[in-house]
Design brief:
CATH topology of chain A: Arc Repressor Mutant, subunit A
Order of helices and strands of chain B: EHHEEEEEEH
Distance between the termini of chain B: 7 Å
Strand content of chain B: 35-45%
Largest sheet of chain A: 3 strands, antiparallel
Order of helices and strands of chain A: HHEHHEEH
Structural class of chain B: alpha+beta
Largest sheet of chain B: 7 strands, antiparallel
Helix content of chain A: 55-70%
Number of domains of chain A: 1
Oligomer: heterodimer
CATH class of chain A: Mainly Alpha
Number of strands of chain B: 7
Distance between the termini of chain A: 44 Å
CATH superfamily of chain A: Winged helix-like DNA-binding domain superfamily/Winged helix DNA-binding domain
Shape of chain B: globular
Shape of chain A: elongated
CATH class of the domain at 5-28 and 66-139 in chain B: Alpha Beta
CATH topology of the domain at 5-28 and 66-139 in chain B: Alpha-D-Glucose-1,6-Bisphosphate, Chain A, domain 4
Radius of gyration of chain A: 20 Å
Number of helices of chain A: 5
Strand content of chain A: 5-15%
Helix content of chain B: 10-25%
CATH superfamily of the domain at 5-28 and 66-139 in chain B: START domain
Number of strands of chain A: 3
CATH architecture of the domain at 5-28 and 66-139 in chain B: 2-Layer Sandwich
Chain lengths: ~110, ~140
């Protein structure tokens, strides 16, 4: 996974309505209409948000007859977890490097 | 329930020294250019808080909840967002011969979930990223 896809995922989650959609989908897969009923925005707006979430790898869909069923993409979460882990790894490595540098200066 | 994130690093100093450098010298090693609210300025432990400063601006990243040198250090973590959504960080310093194993455990993700959280809480940069991460992982059933 590239850093870029994590960034796309975070950017996608920067919008409150998209976070509401993610929360709805955590209860299980839903068609667009059902999501729109539960949110203060219309169906076209929900579709637009779903497209962003899908492109960011956070949501996936499966065709069910004439409509699509949207669900959380399991991989989406893994990418974000990896980002967090790499953030702490970078930070702790930076600490270890600093300890080395100051300890070497000691007589 | 979201599992804590646990990371470790071995450093070339004893536990007391490592504890001192981690806290009193955080500004010397924290990669502020990549991980910070302002991404510039300074970060330090001030009294019982971790504070990032840039000019007149100030961002409190967290409050110290445990100060037990040389073994362990605990603080809340809410850089760039509200204290009500603070997560918890525990850092332990364990001797390993001449070295110290520094273990960081980041937990408390359940407090991040708030459907009514306003967009303002999600500041730019990595603090917002953490918040969004937590919200997402809490939303995904285990």
């Amino acid at each position: 996974m590239s850093n870029q896809s994590a960034e796309r995922a975070f950017d996608a989650l920067g919008d409150p309505m998209r976070r509401r959609i993610i929360e709805r989908l955590s209860d299980g897969p839903r068609p667009v209409g059902e999501l729109a009923d539960a949110l203060p925005i219309g169906r076209p707006a929900v579709s637009k948000h779903l497209r962003v979430l899908t492109n960011a790898g956070l949501v996936e869909y499966t065709p069910r007859g004439t409509r699509n069923l949207y669900a959380l993409a399991p991989e989406g979460q893994r990418h974000l977890q990896q980002w967090l882990i790499s953030m702490w790894d970078d930070t702790l490595q930076s600490f270890a490097t600093y300890v080395d540098s100051v300890e070497k200066e000691q007589p | 329930m979201t599992a804590p994130v646990r990371r470790e690093v071995l450093v070339n100093a004893g536990p007391q020294r490592a504890f001192d450098l981690f806290t009193a010298h955080i500004n010397a090693w924290w990669p502020l250019d990549r991980f910070g609210v302002f991404n510039a300025g300074t970060v330090s432990f001030e009294d019982a808080r971790i504070v990032e400063r840039l000019g007149e601006q100030e961002s409190v990243w967290g409050e110290v909840t445990l100060w037990a040198p040389p073994d362990s250090l605990g603080f809340t973590w809410h850089p760039g967002y509200g204290v009500e959504h603070a997560t918890d960080i525990r850092v332990t310093f364990t001797p390993e011969g001449d070295q110290t194993l520094v273990t960081l455990v980041h937990s408390g993700w359940e407090r991040m979930t708030d459907p009514d959280a306003s967009a303002e809480e999600y500041a730019n940069g990595w603090p917002g990223v953490l918040a969004r991460f937590a919200e997402l992982v809490n939303a995904v059933p285990a």
